[in-house]
Design brief:
With 64 residues, this protein is mainly beta. It has no helices and 5 strands. A hairpin with a 4-residue loop joins strand 4 and strand 5. The radius of gyration is 10 Å and the shape is globular.
């Protein structure tokens, strides 16, 4: 199972959005993240980078 930690704009601890993310959906300028417990976070922005072997995803957000 590949789970990721998602960050806004850059990979730093203070920019962490959600851990253990199992699904990412991008639609109409919004990114919806869902973790293994079913919690969701919706972020206005776009996918910037995904390192699936490293388990990290970075989103470019509209507002920090």
């Amino acid at each position: 199972m590949c789970l990721s930690t998602v960050y806004k704009n850059e990979k730093t601890p203070e920019n962490e959005i959600l851990k253990n993310v199992m699904t990412i959906t991008c639609e109409n300028g919004f990114v919806t993240l869902t973790d293994i417990l079913g919690r969701e976070a919706v972020v206005e922005g776009e996918l910037l980078r995904a390192d699936l072997t490293g388990g990290t995803v970075v989103l470019r957000t509209k507002a920090s």
